Amino acid sequence: MVPSRRTWNLGATPSLRGLWRVGRAPEPEPGMARPAPAPASPAARPFPHTGPGRLRTGRGKDTPVCGDEDSSARSAARPALAQCRALSVDWAGPGSPHGLYLTLQVEHLKEKLISQAQEVSRLRSELGGTDLEKHRDLLMVENERLRQEMRRCEAELQELRAKPAGPCPGCEHSQESAQLRDKLSQLQLEMAESKGMLSELNLEVQQKTDRLAEVELRLKDCLAEKAQEEERLSRRLRDSHETIASLRAQSPPVKYVIKTVEVESSKTKQALSESQARNQHLQEQVAMQRQVLKEMEQQLQSSHQLTARLRAQIAMYESELERAHGQMLEEMQSLEEDKNRAIEEAFARAQVEMKAVHENLAGVRTNLLTLQPALRTLTNDYNGLKRQVRGFPLLLQEALRSVKAEIGQAIEEVNSNNQELLRKYRRELQLRKKCHNELVRLKGNIRVIARVRPVTKEDGEGPEATNAVTFDADDDSIIHLLHKGKPVSFELDKVFSPQASQQDVFQEVQALITSCIDGFNVCIFAYGQTGAGKTYTMEGTPENPGINQRALQLLFSEVQEKASDWEYTITVSAAEIYNEVLRDLLGKEPQEKLEIRLCPDGSGQLYVPGLTEFQVQSVDDINKVFEFGHTNRTTEFTNLNEHSSRSHALLIVTVRGMDCSTGLRTTGKLNLVDLAGSERVGKSGAEGSRLREAQHINKSLSALGDVIAALRSRQGHVPFRNSKLTYLLQDSLSGDSKTLMVVQVSPVEKNTSETLYSLKFAERVRSVELGPGLRRAELGSWSSQEHLEWEPACQTPQPSARAHSAPSSGTSSRPGSIRRKLQPSA
Ligand code: ADP
Ligand code: MG
After folding, report:
1. Ligand 1 within 6 A of 744 CB?
2. Residue 688 and residue 693: Cα distance in Å, rounded?
3. Segment Disordered: which positions (predicted)?
């Protein structure tokens, strides 16, 4: 295709390097001269080099990249081509047709390169990561948002799961369900949006993928085209080389052309290599873009996966929500049913009640109709009463006044009556006391009775156990004793035969006990030898109690009878005197020695500090006290019978009373004494402790006899202090107190000696001076009897001498009693 002879206007040909720079760098090189406009002919211009490796272009300036400038470059190249064709005749000169052709070729190549560069840049800008990156970022943001949404949904789901499945009460539940419904719809909306967005993104990604494939195809085409072009260019170059070689072989002008071509060809080579480098660079960029594309595809894939996962989760949430929704609907349904049921029930009830109310109303209406006349009469009555009420205060005042006056009068009358009664009562009280005193005085303040026990198994058999005691059928105060064959008679205040019961004996002492309630002190002694029946008389047996228990029972019944006027307290103490030592039988320490002391108040009264007192209110209480005392005594002494026979046992009952109307206070003391055995041990040659015991017993019993004798004969000095017993009983023996001595007697022959001694003692106690009046009367009764023969001293009594005189008898306290001459039967 290369013409053989042509003239090329090289001055107007743009250099390849300049061309390259056109496609590559728009900036003109510093120091580069502004190109002059193309000369009108190639001859008019020399062929100067503007600088090493640099040719001036036909356009005279560097071509910018923009399309306009590119087209202007092409349009600038066209006249040059036409010029070449016109000059095609001259091949050998610088403006030969071959050179021109080459220039045109080069021009054409440049154009192609420019267009390719443009294409590449366009592709690059198309492939350029900006949009895709933006998309990717957007997708990432969207993913992030979806992830957050998913987390939120999960949390809500957890919350829903954590909530109890059972029906929730009332409106709270419905509110929650409404909220859930809202949330559900919101989520559904969001899901729809997400779906839309996802499909858009998918579409976009699809488009991008298509475009990318297209671009790749185009790139491939371009590369193929470029390879072809390169091939062609290299072929041309080879041709050119050949042409140059042939031209070298020709004339000098040809040489010059060759040289020029050589020069040009090297530049073209350089441009080619640059173009190749550029191509290489572009290929690298394409590879890079492919890499980026691959990554993005991967990202897209992962985003697809994520989207699928999210879709699955959304589906799960949807099913969960649907389930919750279903549950909620069910609950709402059941609630609705409940509500309807309740409404129906309430309605039915209300209907029933309504019916009842209607019935009631009807009844009330009829009642009202019947009540109206009654109401009228009531109103009339009310009005009448109102009138009366208005006048009532006056009437009331009047009535009150008169009633007050009547009451006042009645109170006065009652008061005066009361005063009178009180006065009379006091007088009666005094009189009673006086009478009692008189009675006792008549009977004697000190009385002596005898009680003979029956013969017992213990008495044995034989002559020693025969009965030696007889009684007077007409006089219950006489006792006969056959002692050593001689009959001896004694007269006492009363004699009880073995047939006498406990009650019989008690009746004799009853008056004394009653006087104790009136404030008198009383002493009852049981005297006699051991085994004569002292304890039996005082204590008795559980089936047949003695004086002690009966006395307390009597006190209780008397006190109860007087309970409306008097308040009484009864206290009990129990003591024992052994060998002149006083011990508390009810105390916690019965061994403790008690002392008798004068009251520190100067009243002259005696008291025993530490002596236990029990308040008793019933027979049970008494039994408990007796039992306690008995237990104390039993634990103290191994042989109680023996011990009790050698000690004096005292039961002290104190009766304190207060007259509720007068406030008068009384205190009476009842001393019930079971004396020690009176047998005369000392005389039978006893020794040691037995002798000491006997001496103490003798001393105390003698002292008792002396005291009683002194009292009865009203001596100035009464030897109370001679023994513990008399000293302790001082209060109860002196003054207007009363004493009863029960002399216990054994009936059998072997005891006659002791019996005689006991009866003598009894008589001695009884026979002492009783007071002038009584004595006179008694003596008067004796005067007509033979007593004088027996005891002349009786006629002119000498109290002190008689008191201590031995067996004296013949006196009688009973008027009209039979007087006898008592003398030994021998
Ligand atoms: P004392 O206390 O004087 O030593 P007791 O009272 O122990 O004598 O009497 C001795 C015995 O005689 C007892 O067994 C008692 O039961 C009996 N005894 C005494 N008096 C009577 C009586 N009146 N009736 C029946 N038995 C009696
Ligand atoms: Mg006894």
Report:
1. yes
2. 9
3. 19-74, 787-826
